[in-house]
């Protein structure tokens, strides 16, 4: 489903991604974890060309993401992306935020898009918030609207870039529960997260990154109990004990 081959990216003399190779099968959930500055967000953002790369190739469902001939708008309609910040339109209601892209990009009739938006919001526990504006919603509710907005395009892949990092602790669970539901439905997903328990619970593979490199890829139980690299052992000793 997602193939990453020899990907490199630099900002000046700083190598942000170094010889990244990774293959993510369909219906799998992969977590990208590691210290700040490891390149996790840069890597996930490069999967739908929000970041450019200098070398290598990223292929999503048979399409080369960074090929100049690729229709980037069509590609992004197949790849749902949920940001750290919610990025909702403040002047639109929850249902309008979810329905706008299918109407404008896919030319879905407004009534049809609105009906689907309501179903998506209801499935994420927001059935009573259709007509609320983002400013009237909690952070957790706004992030669930953002997830519904991404799902409204019927994506083949969902990418989450630290979806709970901007939330108060008590709001994190409702967003993680929404992502759990997607995982159980068989959606192909990549999640950048600092929530170790969540990654251990729902992911098929843990991808540990440090200093722009993939250091280790392993199933959750193996990674969290018997990491093979000293760098991962050091990281886990800090994040699991504090």
From TrEMBL:
Gene3D superfamilies linked to this entry: P-loop containing nucleotide triphosphate hydrolases
Domain of life: Bacteria
Principal location class: membrane
Residue span(s) of domain ABC transporter: 2-236
One function term, GO molecular function aspect: ATP binding
Cited InterPro entries: AAA+_ATPase, ABC_ATPase_HisP-typ, ABC_transporter-like_ATP-bd, ABC_transporter-like_CS, MetN_ABC_transporter-like, P-loop_NTPase
Protein name: Amino acid ABC transporter ATPase
Alphabetic keyword roster: Amino-acid transport, ATP-binding, Cell membrane, Membrane, Nucleotide-binding, Transport
PANTHER family: AMINO ACID IMPORT ATP-BINDING PROTEIN, GLUTAMATE_ASPARTATE IMPORT ATP-BINDING PROTEIN GLTL
Gene Ontology CC: plasma membrane
Family membership noted in the UniProt record: Belongs to the ABC transporter superfamily.
Cellular localisation: Cell membrane
Membrane topology: Peripheral membrane protein
UniProt organism field: Brevibacillus reuszeri
């Amino acid at each position: 489903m997602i193939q990453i081959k020899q990907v490199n990216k630099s900002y000046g003399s700083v190598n942000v991604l170094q010889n990244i190779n990774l293959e993510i099968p369909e219906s799998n959930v992969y977590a990208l974890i590691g210290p700040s500055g490891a390149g996790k967000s840069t890597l996930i953002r490069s999967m739908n060309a929000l970041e450019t790369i200098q070398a290598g190739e990223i292929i999503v469902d048979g399409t080369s993401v960074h090929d100049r001939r690729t229709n980037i708008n069509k590609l992004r309609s197949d790849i749902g992306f949920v940001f750290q910040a919610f990025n909702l339109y403040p002047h639109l209601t929850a249902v309008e935020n979810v329905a706008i892209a299918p109407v404008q990009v896919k030319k879905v009739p407004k009534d049809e898009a609105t009906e689907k938006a309501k179903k998506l919001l209801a499935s994420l526990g927001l059935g009573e918030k259709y007509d609320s504006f983002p400013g009237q919603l909690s952070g957790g509710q706004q992030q669930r609207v953002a997830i519904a907005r991404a799902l409204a395009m019927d994506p083949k892949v969902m990418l989450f870039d630290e979806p709970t990092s901007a939330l108060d602790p008590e709001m994190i669970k409702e967003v993680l529960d929404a992502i759990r539901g997607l995982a159980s439905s068989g959606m192909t997903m990549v999640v950048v997260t600092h929530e170790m328990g969540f990654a251990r619970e729902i992911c098929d593979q843990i991808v540990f990154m440090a200093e722009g490199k993939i250091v280790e890829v392993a199933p959750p139980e193996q990674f969290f109990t018997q990491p093979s690299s000293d760098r991962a052992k050091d990281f886990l000793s800090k994040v699991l004990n504090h």
